[in-house]
Amino acid sequence: MKASAPGKLNVTLACGAPDERGYHPLRTVFMAVDLREEVAIAPAPAWSVRTRMLSETGQELALPQELLELPTNANLAVKAAKAVLREAGIESAAALTITKRVPVAGGMAGGSADAAAAIVATAATFGVKGDWQQLARTLGADVPFALAGNAALGTVYGDHLFPVPACRRHWVFACANGAGLSTPTVFKRFDQLPRPTHPSWVLPATSLRPLEGQLGEALIDPDPRRLAGMMFNDLQAAAVAERGALAEVIEAATSAGALCAQVSGSGPTVVALAPDGESGRRIAAKLQKLDSVARAIVTQGPALGARIEGK
Ligand code: C5P
Q1: What are the chain's domains?
Q2: Where do the catalytic residues lie (predicted)?
């Protein structure tokens, strides 16, 4: 059985002060995009993973070193498959084949999409039924959204979701050259910077509170300019402090016609909202020329969550 799950961007990301566990409460609007990870799974005598990476045009790309060196047991898709089998009381191992299309650069939750696709593929292969949101949460804060897809407000750590309607738009992702940014390092840097202030509707809340007012309206407004005016990422200043070149990418995207450009998640990928597909391709071509950009990709979102793709 084969399943797929989408990469994501954060349209807005409000971050609060760390709690007693050292984790930061988040209030974020996620949007899933058309770049999809695929996980095929078959029962096998021992656990194994084969991974390949494809460009958006289907060309085989070299796998980054960190993925080549990842032990099978540390692979989030394997952990997800094991968790489903454990919950169902099934003793079996499986062979996984992962086809990646979400850039590994960071900030787009490709690893979480692998886990979400693995949950769905494992459940289908072994005939297990369940509501997987809770299990997804135990694997990582972005896994529930990769399962759910479309657009959603994430509260608590971004892992408790309220679906929200949203218009489809064109998005340009600029993946950074060089190493990724460490998520804990970006959060630590965030704590050293002045805390951002927000109107009350974007405050990070550990309580479950649905999306209110203007942002919800902007998400369904056919004119993308309204949404562009509301996008923000509290982690951006910290990511830029760690990686100065990101400021240049944001600036270049905006001067190439992006309605808004910001760091995606904790970076180092930058995401830009394009007025339309043709402008998106023009923005991507300009970003592609920057030394600090490895790949610039135009895609669309919202996109469906994790789903079966057949055998
Ligand atoms: O979720 P993930 O395991 O990638 O998080 C890695 C680290 O990033 C955490 O151990 C924590 O230090 C930091 N983090 C945080 N607040 C969050 C998510 C992650 O402080 N909401």
Answers
A1: 2-164 (3.30.230.10), 169-301 (3.30.70.890)
A2: 8, 142
CA of 109 to the centre of ligand 1 (A): 13
Answer whether 0.85 is exceeded by the pTM.
yes
Contacts of 187 (CB under 8 A, 6+ apart): 15, 18, 24, 235, 238, 266
In the structure encoding, which two tokens stand for residue 274, read together? 């394009």
DSSP-derived pairing of the beta strands 232-233 and 2-15: parallel
89 has binding-site annotation: no
CA of 283 to the centre of ligand 1 (A): 31
Put residue 253 in one of left, alpha, beta given phi > 0 → left and psi -120 to 50 → alpha: alpha
The closest alpha carbon to 230, from 198, 267, 208, belongs to 198
Contact 152, 210 (CB under 8 A): no
Q: What pLDDT, in 10s, does the model give residues 142-159?
A: 999 999 999 999 999 999
pLDDT in tens, 26-76: 999 999 999 999 999 999 999 999 999 999 889 999 998 888 899 999 999
Is 109 labeled as ligand-binding?
Answer: yes
